[in-house]
Amino acid sequence: MLTPLFRLQQDMTSLSVFIHAPMAKLNELEICVDDRIFFFTASPYYLKFEIPGAVYTEEESMQISFSDGEFTVVLQKKDCSLFKDLDLIVKLINGANSPSSKTHIFIEEVGCEDCNVLDQSELSESPKWFAGSSYEFGCDTSNPLTVSDEIVILSPVYGFCGSKSGLFKVESELTHVIDLPNPDGVKPECRSKFRIAAENRKFSAVHYLADLYETECWKSAFDLRVPWCEPNTENGPELTDEQRHRLIALSTRKLPPTPTDSSTIISLYLGLLDLLLAYTYDYRVREGEDMSESGWNIAKLASTLTWFEVSCVSHLITRFFRACASIYFNRLFCFVD
Its family (predicted)? Predict the structure, then answer.
């Protein structure tokens, strides 16, 4: 069965579900809502997702129409309120498949019952977003750095929650993207030293001054109106069909388990912030146009990808400014978003 593209819209009294199913067989159409779970089936399509609020489930209260391959289902809300997270497609689909929504479970994945729940003592602690590593800026970068030949007992880790290691023992395409020399032989506490030394070598005062005074080179990118800052989009720009398709495909993948310690959770959020900063900068550089070099630009601007380095918010932002100054435009350009 195929999962059709869908989107949700709402007002204070109703919730509209738009389902794009051009090949649906109308004689096999079934639509129902059971315990806040929306079901749609019309061969070869099948859709099930969680409704983030209470609606009337009687068929008499639904309004169903079909036009140009798209079904429109209007559901009436029980309370006059706005539902949250209507654009989080993965959350809605996975919510319908959660163990709490299943009445009959024949095969169940077992494990630690609280593997996805933080300890109460950790929840009560305030996250240390600005507590960086002691080696970050206190290291001596005047001495030439070389990759140590000492034996590393435990292989350095990197990637999502530090779940990867040993990926660079054999040269591959990934090797050309990473700036950190010998990632599987450099200790995590030495990554910052190599990065700062590389940034100092790449920085060009002439390039920096040229960007400062030759404003015509970057003024159009500076004045670009980005879609997520438009005044009329309260919930952000609307997703495209391609983006919805990717989210639906993502909902079928088995994701890594949620980390249980606060330090790992902080590193995940900082890594996300690092990627968002790099993406917004790249979006302005290419002025919103699709460009094949975007992946390379983001990788080079995000130290999470090129140096496998995450510490705290202040250090992350400083690293981002230094990367922008040594690669593209001057640092003033970073303040736009």
Answer: Belongs to the SHQ1 family.
